Structures are given as C-alpha cells and as structure tokens.
Amino acid sequence: MLFTFILIDKPDSAALRTAMRPTHKAYLAAVAERIAFAGPFVHDDGSTMLGSLLVIDFPSRDAAHAWLAEEPFTKAGLYGSVSVQAFVNLWPQMAGFPPTV
C-alpha cells in the first residue's frame, strides 16, 4: 500500500536540512524501487525548502512508521510536523515530470 509522508521542517532548520541531505538521499535510495514520488516542499520562491513529501509503498502502516523512525531527517529532529496517510493513486502523474526520450 502507498503511504504519503507529509513532513514539515521546524523553523530555522535550513542548515540542518543541508547537513543531513546526503544521508537522507542515501536512505531513500535503499527503497528507490518502491518510491512513487518524492521531493521537497518549497516556499513560493521555488528553491527555499520547507519540508518533504514522500509517497512510498510499504506492506503496512507499521512498516511505514518503522521506516520513518530510522529516516535521517527524522532522527536529526528536522521535522516539526509529521503526517503519514494511506494513499490510493487513481490518476497517473503527468505534470512535473521530464519528458522521456
């Protein structure tokens, strides 16, 4: 089942996010084949990060929460707000993806 992770950074945490980003990306790479989509929330300037949106396939809610508990940004205390919700994808993604060659 797909689970959405809506993760909002604590205020003034840009330096922590930057420092932990390589470890976070490596952790995501371990489940890359199960990621439906993932990326940062940004401010309206399009570049200042303010959180993360992840949609990943897990066999259960418990497995999703266990994965999140070990996620580097979580362990570093980056997030001020966390929401995990089951998700059913009923519409194929069209916008926001580069064209395939």
How would you characterize this protein structure?
- This protein has 101 residues and is α+β, with helices and mostly antiparallel strands.
- The chain has one domain: 2-Layer Sandwich (Alpha-Beta Plaits), CATH 3.30.70.
- It contains three helices and four strands, in the order βαββααβ.
Which structural traits does this protein have?
single chain, alpha+beta, 31% helix
CATH topology value: Alpha-Beta Plaits
Number of domains: 1
Counted by DSSP, the helix tally is 3
Q: How are the strands ordered across the major sheet?
A: 2-3-1-4
Low-confidence stretches: none
Name the beta content range: 25-35%
What's the CATH architecture?
Answer: 2-Layer Sandwich
CATH superfamily: Dimeric alpha+beta barrel
Question: Mind sketching the topology for me?
Answer:
Layout: E1 2-9, H1 14-29, E2 35-42, E3 49-57, H2 61-70, H3 72-76, E4 79-87
Antiparallel strand pairs: 1-3, 1-4, 2-3
Concise overview:
This protein has helices at 14-29, 61-70, 72-76; strands at residues 2-9, 35-42, 49-57, 79-87. By secondary structure, it is of the alpha+beta class.
